Amino acid sequence: MQTIQSTSDSHSRRRNILEQTLHGITEAIEHAVFAEQISANAGFFQSLDARVKVISMLALLIGVSLSRSLLVIAAVYLLLLILAWSSAIPVDFFIKRVWLVLPFFTGLVVIPALFITPGPVLVHLPLGLVITATGVNTVLFLLLRVSTSVSLTLLLILTTPWNAVLSALSVLRLPDVFILVLGMTYRYIYLLLHLANDMFLSRKSRVVGYLSTSDNQHVLAAVSATLLGKSLDMSSEVYLAMVSRGFRGSIITLKPFKMRAKDWWWLSAFLAIAVVVIIMGR
Amino acid sequence: MDATIVFEVCNVSFAYEGNQTALEHVSLEVQAGESLVILGANGSGKSSLLKLLDGLYFPSSGTISVFGKSLTEEALLNDEFNFAFRRRVGLVFQDSDVQLFSPSVLDEVAFAPLQLGLAREEVNRRIDSALEALRIEKLRDRAPHRLSGGEKRRVALASILTLQPDVWLMDEPTAGLDPRSQSWLVEFILNQQKQGKTIVTATHDLTIAEEIASTICVFSEEHKIVASGKPSDILNDHELLHRSNLSHYHARVIE
Questions:
Q1: Does residue B131 belong to the interface with chain A, where contact is any CB pair within 8 Å?
Q2: Is the terminal CB of chain B with fewer CB neighbours within 10 Å at N or C?
């Protein structure tokens, strides 16, 4: 039984920090990982073979990474927006999903480049700081390259069920056992997320009043330890279930894909675009 | 040895690491075509026994034979014995989430026949047949984590059905299922019985035991077999069931 210490507003806010954070993380990861609803829509990219999508996106990713032209990368980004639209992905969602997250990662890393890159001065700031045109160009270039790369991956994930992405990875000559482990990781993260959520809900249902920060930390540690124990037990059981059905260290998998003429045509088209991106981006 | 005996368990004891006892001096026989129900309360050792019968755990003492051959860790290192054994014996785990580890239903039901070296055409034929038998053709490309409890159980059964095993080991098959799914599962087990399959079911559900058992053995909470015999004899022995924590008396409330 938890002690009731206070019911003030500040305490209420503190009480919910842990729950809200964990719920938010759970929701965010679930949304990020499980885009099945969109992948089940009837759209252009959904209609292609998963292998075509994996190879095409990889080729474009290489093209964007090698390109030194802002315009060429911008053209690829525009192409991605058109592909997203034709694949029944809401374009505003597709843009926000990348650009709302980007500043927290790439933005923080590249902002110093605004000030330290030598070049013509654009703006004078206090403390002797200056923003240079070369600096702005560098930051824009990095942001656009990263956002285009992330968008390429996002387009693949949103239009392809994760199990199909995993199966398609076999064309990259990744070992089957590696792909199986990736799939199992995805599958059991989902299960453990739900378990964690249930444990926090169960805890919440038994707490009256609020928990202090140290109590919250204690709860978090206890849940983490329980999850670790459960995941260890589960991994052992999963291994037994595999052995029971003939697993002996190596994996044989079905490769049920069948390439159609349409798939070959679009694969060629995307590879050609990647080559053009590399050549024009020099 | 009698050719009709599938499993012969002789004086088997088993303990987990840390000396946590799971089975104590257990002896039993499973005949071909028999439907043996192992009744016991939670923690009595039923699941451990099924894993021993499936060659996943090995006894601390005592011996287990299967189809007249000794079932040991060394024996299962032999490819020929391992393949023959795994093809003939299938275990349905209590927790379907443990059993469904593949990225899609199709991969899941294909797993066993592929690992056991069946030809691709035969694997595809068995997949189609199993999906149809369990009426889950529509789930073929679905990810297991998106399925309901009843659907997961059907896929788990399909993943064993593609083996076409002679022996089914089932751990708490009705646990967590709604009444319709339970009823369907009982029909599935009865159907397998009609086909001459040997079935060993671990459960504490007396209703399913009555419906599917040809023989029942009862485990005590001390991890020992305390009774075995015909379903009618065992299930009418209320004192035995009460002592084994399988049924309870409720005090009548007098207003």
A1: no
A2: C
